[in-house]
Amino acid sequence: MIADLRLPLKIKLGGREEQFAREAAKMTNEYLNMYRSLFPGLTEKHYLAMSAFHFCYRCIELRDKNDTQPYIQRLENIKKSLDAYLEDKE
Fold this sequence. Notes:
3 helices; 73% helix; elongated
């Protein structure tokens, strides 16, 4: 249940999927309530949109924070340098 709506989502019961779904619904409702108290008088669509934006923003922020591509590229460059150095020594 999110925003007093029963959503017809199918999840596997008894596992991590159920745990994640319950936690996601709880967090969503907490953010809905937070935005309701911060901005009273708006429509439910506004609160849902603000909550969706909040979660998407956080997801992008975490994705960017966990971007390992620059490190992988740097390691590739180090490997090439080491390979070139070892070839010169042989």
